Automatic annotation (TrEMBL):
It comes from the Bacteria. Gene3D superfamilies: Hotdog Thioesterase (3.10.129.10). The lineage of its organism: Bacteria, Bacillati, Actinomycetota, Actinomycetes, Mycobacteriales. InterPro entries: HotDog_dom_sf (IPR029069), MaoC-like_dom (IPR002539), MCH/BMMD (IPR052342). This is MaoC family dehydratase. PANTHER family: BETA-METHYLMALYL-COA DEHYDRATASE, MONOAMINE OXIDASE-RELATED.
Length: 176
């Protein structure tokens, strides 16, 4: 089949997924990161053994079944929970625009995660400032929150990141 068109040919639009430039972050805005991530036994076992955290509360089902407060189940490694909460934010916030993680603070795990729970993440932008020593970059302070499928908060953390600016410090054009 042959198709004939008249006029100028239409150019295809391409869109590349990326995180936000420094100038696109707004203090007080909360970003919801979807979809969530259902955590499996394999996720927990692999992460726990790769990171040499061989606590029985993560690996030993028989032991966990005897412990009060564990609901008869092994707990998901809290570092997996934190890593996944931050990971869920990457596509929306920092993909290709982050320079470095500068540090984490105020990390808490107020409720446990279990195999089969689904983890949802949200991030609040706490502050944004251009770097004085790096004119093409700036610091963004973020509060990450992880919730399970019931809406219970299972993880919180404040993270400082160094992010690329869209424009140089002198206001001249794009940096990339």
């Amino acid at each position: 089949m042959t198709e004939t068109t008249t006029g100028s040919p239409k150019t295809a639009t391409t869109i590349e997924q990326r995180g936000l430039w420094l100038e696109e972050f707004e203090e007080g805005v909360t970003y919801l990161h979807r979809p969530g991530r259902t955590v499996t036994e394999a996720d927990n076992t692999l992460f726990t053994t790769q990171t040499m955290n061989t606590q029985p509360l993560h690996l030993d089902a028989a032991w966990a079944a005897t412990q009060p407060g564990f609901h008869g189940e092994r707990l998901v490694n809290s570092m997996f929970t934190l890593s996944t909460v931050v990971g869920l934010s990457v596509n929306q916030l920092t993909l290709g625009t982050i320079v470095a993680n500068l540090g984490f603070s105020e990390i808490a795990f107020p409720a446990p995660m279990f195999h089969g729970d689904t983890l949802y993440a949200e991030t609040e932008c706490l502050s944004v400032r251009r770097s004085k020593s790096r004119p093409n970059q700036g610091v963004v302070e973020l509060r990450h929150i992880g919730r399970n499928q019931h809406g219970d908060i299972v993880c919180t953390a404040v993270r400082n990141t160094l992010v690329q600016c869209r424009t140089t410090g002198d206001g001249e054009g794009e940096t990339s």
